[in-house]
């Protein structure tokens, strides 16, 4: 039983990693995509906005789809579509081709993101301790690798198809093979083989608890988490879209130095997520979320008031350490709030990932043009601080001691020595 969970955890971690690589390869080569297809500056925002919009549609569809098929099946087939759509982006040269490829990419990403986090929450429930940050840490690692591969392709002036093909040829078969060991919350996997956990096992043996019972998702209860998710992605998109411009135009750095903040942000995001699960286990999710929000707000304040480029980079470093814990813990909290309808809650919550992404970059750009870019950085700072108001939504609820730590469920008693 322990081996089943370990294999499920490892295979899901690879799914997060592959998605990190694919998404980074897409977003970091946008200038090359624009040149290859002759997309004008005026038309480019429409193409870019279509991806998160369609991803939101894909997430909504996934909520309905998992009522009929397990999330493992959605993930098993959406990930190859994402990778093949990425290859399609690099293969064409006409506008309808890039439109079709990005549409497929966006719809599949919505299903992939939702189903990955559904399985992650299910496994965390089975383990009886925090492991969600670890999955997102692997996603960050994939993003770093994807960005590095994109740099190599740009440096050697490789065609997009040539850059993407080796990556897809490696990731696609491994993802398909690994998908055999996905584990669903009802105890079943993507196949009837190694990924299936017996329902009749006794308590304390590592079984995955059922989470697909009938249940309703109350939007009033979910709303605080939706807002936290939105604010976190507003902060994240601010860094990804404006860090280079801010360092160069506002803080007077060189063009080369302006490329550093986002890489630093990605590395510190990886570090924060790699150690974040230990913090949740030791201090509880509420304390970790509060600390992350405060650190992120301090990071934005440092960026806004930085006298020079190096202090600005310190601010972006703090942003990575602070923002990185919010999204994984928000998904985990949704699973705890709605144990009888965890999949529906996660699918709906996932939509606000894309809402934040759509709002963040235009918001900062409009404020920067109308006011100052230093002042614009204070807006995501305030939004992140609002997370403190909703931090209690991350508490485990009835399974909680007076000190805020999670109470082990009956099925988790005795697991401390089973190697998990």
TrEMBL record:
Membrane association type: Multi-pass membrane protein
PANTHER family according to UniProt: BYPASS OF STOP CODON PROTEIN 6, INNER MEMBRANE PROTEIN YBJJ
Transmembrane helix listed as a keyword: yes
Cited InterPro entries: MFS, MFS_dom, MFS_trans_sf, MFS_Transporter
Segments passing through the bilayer: 12-30, 42-62, 98-119, 131-152, 158-177, 283-304, 310-334, 346-365, 371-391
Major location category of this protein: membrane
GO CC annotations on file: plasma membrane
GO function term, MF aspect, one: transmembrane transporter activity
Span list, region Disordered: 401-420
Organism: Streptomyces montanus
Biased composition, class Basic and acidic residues, residue ranges: 401-412
Domain Major facilitator superfamily (MFS) profile: 222-420
Subcellular location: Cell membrane
Protein name stated in the entry: MFS transporter
Keywords: Membrane, Transmembrane, Transmembrane helix
């Amino acid at each position: 039983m322990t081996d089943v969970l370990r294999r499920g955890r490892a295979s899901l971690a690879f799914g997060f990693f592959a998605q990190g690589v694919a998404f980074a390869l897409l977003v970091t080569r946008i200038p090359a995509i624009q040149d290859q297809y002759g997309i004008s500056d005026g038309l480019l925002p429409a193409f870019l906005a279509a991806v998160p919009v369609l991803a939101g549609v894909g997430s909504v569809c996934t909520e309905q789809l998992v009522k009929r098929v397990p999330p493992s099946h959605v993930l098993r087939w959406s990930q190859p579509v994402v990778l093949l759509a990425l290859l399609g982006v690099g293969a064409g040269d006409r506008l309808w081709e890039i439109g079709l490829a990005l549409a497929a990419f966006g719809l599949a990403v919505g299903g992939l993101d939702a189903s990955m986090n559904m399985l992650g929450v299910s496994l965390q429930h089975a383990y009886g301790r925090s492991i969600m940050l670890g999955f997102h840490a692997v996603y960050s690692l994939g993003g770093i690798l994807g960005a590095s591969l994109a740099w190599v392709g740009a440096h050697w002036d490789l065609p997009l198809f040539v850059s993407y093909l080796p990556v897809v040829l490696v990731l696609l078969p491994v993802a398909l093979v690994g998908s055999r060991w996905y584990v669903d919350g009802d105890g079943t996997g993507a196949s009837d083989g190694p990924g299936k956990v017996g329902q009749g096992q006794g308590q304390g043996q590592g079984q995955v608890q059922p989470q697909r019972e009938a249940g309703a998702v109350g939007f009033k209860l979910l709303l605080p988490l939706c807002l936290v998710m939105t604010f976190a992605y507003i902060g994240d998109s601010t860094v990804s879209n404006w860090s280079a411009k801010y360092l160069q135009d506002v803080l007077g750095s060189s063009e080369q130095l302006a490329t550093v903040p986002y890489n630093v942000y990605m590395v510190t995001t990886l570090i924060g997520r790699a150690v974040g699960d230990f913090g949740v286990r030791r201090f509880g999710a509420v304390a970790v979320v509060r600390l992350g929000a405060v650190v992120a707000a301090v990071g934005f304040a440092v960026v806004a008031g930085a006298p020079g480029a190096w202090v600005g980079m310190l601010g972006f470093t703090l942003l990575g350490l602070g923002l990185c814990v919010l999204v994984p813990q928000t998904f985990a909290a949704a699973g705890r709030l709605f144990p009888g309808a965890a999949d529906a809650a996660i699918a709906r919550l996932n939509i606000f990932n894309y809402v934040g992404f759509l709002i963040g970059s235009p918001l900062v750009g409009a404020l920067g043009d109308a006011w100052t870019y230093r002042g614009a950085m204070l807006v995501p700072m305030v939004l992140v601080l609002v997370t403190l108001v909703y931090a209690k939504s991350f508490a485990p609820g009835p399974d909680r001691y007076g000190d805020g730590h999670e109470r082990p469920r009956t099925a988790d008693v005795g697991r401390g020595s089973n190697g998990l």
